[in-house]
Amino acid sequence: LAARWAPHAEVSLIEDSQSRGELPRAGHVVIVGYGLNGRNLARVLAETSIPYCVIEFDGVAAADARREGHPVLYGDATRTHVLERAHVGDAIVVVVAIRDAAATRAIVRAARRMNKTAAIVVRTHYVAEIESLYALGADDVIPEEFETSVEIFSRVLQRLDIPPNVIAAQIDVLRAEHYALLRGAARTRRYAESIYDIFMAATTVTYLVREGSPAIGRTLDEIGLRRATGANVIALVRGGQAITNPPLSTVIERGDILVLLGNHSQIAAARAALDPVEPPPPS
Predict the structure, then answer these.
(1) Looking at the domain 203-274, which fold is it?
(2) Residue 278 has what DSSP assignment?
(3) pTM of the model
């Protein structure tokens, strides 16, 4: 217990000089906090030979980091002399991954004052902190609960066969707006317009014609996908052979793979038209 609470007093810094050598002095990453996120980041940086150091205010966590071979400063990162010992002024990235909201704000403010060009990345538990942390100089603020939401809708869109580049573009827009949509902020309309533009953009998907599809045995002209949905069949793969721009007289067979072109609403309508008809439940 004493070891865990010791850092709350004024303590001397402990500089790790074991297996990974002296603390880096320039061009490095400073990690504030050796919780789950800080630990994972430190491991990745160590494995990729990117210079870094860890600042930890908790005695037990600092000892853990030191035992695992990471360069550690044991002290309070809200204090300027601790940041100076970590050479924050010459770092290229500063990552703040602690739970204390007030301490996080103080560290971001001090780090930006010491280094005008470093990228400051902050993890926060508190939605209300997002804008204030950006105002203090953070470059990226990662709210944990919103990132979970982002991951969920990313997985949902993958299940809906939305192309990965479109999903990535949506996430980029969402983050660029500082999660305004999820926070219900005033910029939601601009974000929604950006998402609308993405969804209206043309994309291609492949569709496997399964047993029971109403398209089987009918020609492309009879199916009339373009007339009914706006989507076009720009290619067909049958028996491993690709047919580009198949003629309207082409008869669809089970196992054909259709390459559909259209925006997302058109693709969704085309999929619905091609999907097998479910038999009615027995009475």
Answers:
(1) Alpha-Beta Plaits (3.30.70)
(2) P
(3) 0.57
